[in-house]
Specification:
The structure holds 2 protein chains of 2 kinds. By secondary structure, chain A is mostly helical. Chain A has 17 helices and no strands. In chain A, helix 4 runs antiparallel to helix 5 and helix 6 packs antiparallel against helix 7. The longest helix of chain A has about 35 residues. Chain B is mainly alpha-helical. Chain B has a single domain, classed as Four Helix Bundle (Hemerythrin (Met), subunit A) (Up-down Bundle). Chain B has 5 helices and no strands. Chain B is elongated, with a radius of gyration of 19 Å. Classes of the chains: A mainly alpha, B mainly alpha. At the A-B interface, helix 5, helix 6, helix 7 and helix 8 of A face helix 1 and helix 4 of B. The structure holds protoporphyrin IX containing FE and copper (II) ion.
Chain lengths: ~550, ~190
């Protein structure tokens, strides 16, 4: 081969499928897939950390992990799952789907989009490099100052955490601005805000939440950085600093953050349930309004994480009542999903199973949240395993189940191949049972007074049996994830079917080929209802006839 | 920032402008959070350093410089609307240079305020707010400089000058934030 021919053939491999083409890509679909794959790898890492913790806690007085290692492992587990897994998985779906769902050819700023992905990846790898450089952060995912001050946390772990979170916050901010601009500017003709697919709505609101809440985290972290590196005294009470400042700044971000984590999953199930119930979404407007309401209310409840810090009674009353209030829009959504299924022609395939699992488990988690919002109850069970149960019912039962629903649902669009249905059902049932085995007993342990974040416990308190059951459940979850990974590989190695619309879908992404071409739509579609594809398939029964009537 | 996608024909507000608004929103939340933290800290402890400086001279001079600079930036937009290329170039250049003078003045002030970052919590608050504002001024200078370069390349006309407009808006924003900080740190 001549040199010229060689360079041509090299160019071809790099052109569309080579590694370099993925590194250089600014295509929203590829960036979406990069996000999803990277976040899934972090999910496995975070999951392994969880297994380590469960092994340590399986028996009383266990010596599998030392106290110090245990602290690092739970800190990295929480930080990973929140910042490196759930947020970027949502960003991955957002990148892949938003342009397709609104009938656009890409995001508004494709290069910024690539920038936010690489910033995220770098931030994640950077944070993990702390294990090699003298120890990972070990003060929990919310890293309370003054505990995180240099005096009390002298290793470099906290410095890695600080810089890592700054990078991840930057990535999310850039990504959110991009989503907002894209959704405002690039909607196909006819797609008014009232016709926006639900996942686009939740991405929209989530992006606003990020834009308004992340600066608070950034502030908290910058102040900590200055304290640690330049000897400032923001969190040092001896020098006029404050011991509660961090908690306020962190939770002013932290509560909106929990909705940043859950809203995209709510968007996903709001798209899956109608398709698998063969009905339009029941209560579209109610879901949209409750999403917006959650967005606003989410900024007003942060101090319910601080009931035990000694607040004035008025504040306690306000934040408690307000937290009950935020349960209302959440309840509205549950009814809307149930109403969609009511008398529908239900198809219990994997995406639908995960969506139903989401509704059931999220409901339990939400009710736990209401318990915790009752001040005297919270005083008893704050910082106990009850809180751990709450956060996992909403985040694992909620966000992760919702995301798996989305993975099974849109995998055929992204790859042209449908995941194996039998394995999908095994995955679902084992994960569902495992999840309840791990987290249901945590309620009991919390009520019995087992504190969270302890590396071991003595025998004879009645905690042994539940801890043992939880560890078994954790291995069940791990098994279910293995089944998913096997399913992924056997599916991806098969020849694609390239079915553009395997589920009999409703929205614009199913009008493109699977996977869609680079430019998504040869011709920009125009939209007359919330279910444009349904209208195309059933001109006589088209939704727009009813909606416009 | 450039958009490579087609903007929807019916869209009235430009994509760049929306992006700028949202960016400034998130920046504002950031500054407000810092100010609230400052208020809370001040509320909780006695600063052992006096937080009103006897020397208001340098900050006052700096304020004037920034104000004139903002005015210059504004005349850049007026100039480009009339396709006055020299006016555009001169105004941008003046605004930019005054911005740099402001930063130099700030550096001088940092060295003469009689404060250091580890002087109680207040030292930290002072340098954080001022430092971040200075970083924004520098970002604004870069924005103006890019526009100046594009002016020299003949990129702007009376109908096509969005980048100038956005750069100037950013400059106004930086000036506005300065007034708030000046009031909060020196006057209150
Ligand atoms: C029905 C609405 C909800 C209410 C009333 C509620 C209430 C609460 C309360 C009072 C706490 C503090 C418990 C304590 O530390 O003593 C808490 C913690 C938490 N909640 Fe919720 N919650 C709700 C929904 C959610 C949702 C939807 C998510 C996430 C998807 C979530 C995630 C969390 C997390 C991660 C924590 C623990 C933070 C930590 O201390 O590490 N919550 N919740
Ligand atoms: Cu909360």
């Amino acid at each position: 081969m001549t040199a010229q021919a060689q360079s041509i053939s090299r160019k071809q491999t790099l052109g569309s499928s080579g590694l370099l083409s993925w590194i250089m890509t600014v295509d929203h679909k590829r960036i979406g897939i990069l996000y999803l794959v990277s976040a899934f790898i972090f999910f496995i890492i975070g999951g392994l950390e969880a297994l380590l913790m469960r092994i340590q806690l399986a028996k009383p007085d266990n010596t599998f992990l030392g106290a110090d290692t245990y602290n690092q492992v739970f800190t990295m587990h929480g930080t990973t799952m929140i910042f490196l897994v759930v947020m970027p998985l949502a960003a991955g779906f957002g990148n892949y789907l938003v342009p397709l769902l609104i009938g656009a050819r890409d995001m508004a700023f494709p290069k910024l989009n690539a920038l936010s992905y690489w910033t995220y990846l770098f931030g994640g790898i950077f944070m993990y490099s702390s294990f090699v450089y003298g120890g990972a952060p070990n003060d929990g995912w919310f890293s309370y100052a003054p505990l995180t001050e240099k005096m009390y946390s002298p290793t470099h772990g906290m410095d890695f955490w600080v810089m890592g979170i700054l990078l991840l916050g930057l990535a999310t901010t850039i990504g959110s601005i991009n989503f907002i601009v894209t959704i405002i500017q690039l909607r196909a003709p006819g797609m008014s805000l009232t016709k926006l697919p639900l996942f686009v709505w939740t991405t929209f609101v989530t992006s606003f939440l990020a834009v308004f809440s992340l600066p608070s985290l950034t502030t908290a972290i910058l102040l900590l950085l200055l304290d640690r590196q330049l000897g400032a005294h923001f969190y040092n009470t001896a020098q006029g600093g404050s011991a509660l400042l961090w908690q306020h700044l962190f939770w002013f971000f932290g509560h909106p953050e929990v909705y940043i984590l859950i809203l995209p999953a709510m968007g996903i199930v709001s798209m899956v349930i109608p398709v698998f119930s063969s009905k339009p979404l029941f209560g579209y407007a109610a879901i949209v309004f409750s999403t917006i309401a959650i967005g606003f209310l989410g900024f007003t409840v942060w101090a319910h994480h601080m009931f035990a810090t000694g607040m004035p009674t008025v504040s306690l009353l306000f934040f408690s009542a307000d937290s009950f209030l935020i349960g209302v829009p959440t309840g509205v959504k549950i009814f809307a999903w149930l109403g969609t299924m009511w008398r529908g022609k239900l198809r219990f395939m994997s995406p639908m199973l995960f969506a139903i699992g989401f509704v059931a488990l999220f409901l339990i988690g939400g009710l736990d949240g209401i318990h915790l919002a009752v001040v005297p109850v919270d005083w008893q069970i704050t910082d106990s395993y009850y809180v751990v149960a709450h956060i996992h019912y909403v985040l694992f039962g909620g966000a992760i189940f919702g995301i798996f629903s989305g993975i099974y649902f849109w995998f055929p669009k992204m790859t042209g191949r449908i995941l194996n249905e039998a394995l999908g059902k095994w995955h679902f049932w084992i994960m569902f049972i495992g999840m309840n085995l791990v987290f249901m007993p945590m309620h009991v342990l919390g009520l019995e007074g087992m504190p969270r974040r302890i590396y071991t416990y003595g025998p004879g308190r009645g905690w042994e049996i539940w801890n043992y059951v939880e560890t078994i459940g954790a291995f069940l979850i791990a098994t279910s994830i293995l089944i998913f990974i096997v399913n992924f590989f056997i599916t991806i190695l098969k020849a694609p079917q390239n079915d553009p619309d395997p589920w009999d879908g409703f929205t614009l992404e199913w009008t493109t080929s699977s996977p869609p071409p680079d430019y998504n739509f040869a011709e920009i579609p125009s939209v007359r209802s919330r279910r444009p594809l349904w209208d195309n398939k059933h001109p006589d029964l088209a939704d727009w006839k009813k909606e416009e009537a | 920032m450039t958009s490579s996608s087609v903007t929807h024909p019916a869209a009235r507000v430009s994509t760049g402008r929306i992006a700028l608004w949202i960016t400034l929103t998130t920046e504002s939340v950031f500054f407000v959070t810092l100010l609230v933290a400052y208020a809370a800290l001040r509320d909780e402890a006695d600063w052992s350093l006096p937080h009103t400086f006897t020397r208001l001279l340098i900050p006052a001079v700096n304020t004037t410089i920034l104000l004139v600079s903002a005015f210059m930036a504004g005349s850049a937009v007026r100039a480009v609307r009339h396709n006055d290329q020299t006016g555009l170039r001169n105004s941008l250049l003046r605004a930019l240079l005054l911005g740099l003078v402001f930063v130099a003045g700030q550096v001088f002030e940092f060295n003469h305020a009689g404060l250091s970052i580890d002087d109680q919590a207040f030292g930290g608050v002072f340098f954080t707010l001022m430092g971040f504002h200075a970083v924004h001024v520098l970002a604004g200078v870069v924005f103006l400089a890019l526009n100046l370069m594009r002016t020299n390349l003949g990129d702007f006309t009376s109908t096509h000058y969005e980048a100038v407009d956005l750069g100037v808006w950013f400059w106004y924003y930086v000036t506005l934030v300065w007034f708030v900080l000046f009031a909060a740190l020196y006057l209150l």
